[in-house]
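User: Design a sequence. Structure:
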């Protein structure tokens, strides 16, 4: 969306993303839009692939979409960077990110 500062993408399974979404995410990251991947499933952790990590996608760990959106709104309102947001999520998840 034009003017967006952050996007939460609810991905399939442990982090499967359709190619069209990957392309849109890369375009958003090129515009410095924060992007968080969360899972659509009832439980489990999102694995963000290396290609997505390289462009700065934030792994939502085991946060559901609603919680990730709330965290993203607060973080962006506080002026946090993508790296800072990832750090906050890692702490919430117990620092268990690979």
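Assistant: Done.
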């Amino acid at each position: 969306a034009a003017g967006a500062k952050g996007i939460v993408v609810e991905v399939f399974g442990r982090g499967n993303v359709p190619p069209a979404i990957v392309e849109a995410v890369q375009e958003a990251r090129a515009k410095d839009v924060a992007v968080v991947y969360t899972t659509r499933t009832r439980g489990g952790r999102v694995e963000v692939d290396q290609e997505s990590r390289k462009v700065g996608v934030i792994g939502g760990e085991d946060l559901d979409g609603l919680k990730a959106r709330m965290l993203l709104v607060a973080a962006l309102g506080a002026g946090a960077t993508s790296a800072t947001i990832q750090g906050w999520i890692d702490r919430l998840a117990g620092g268990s990110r690979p």
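The first strand starts at residue 6 and ends at 11. The mean pLDDT is 87.
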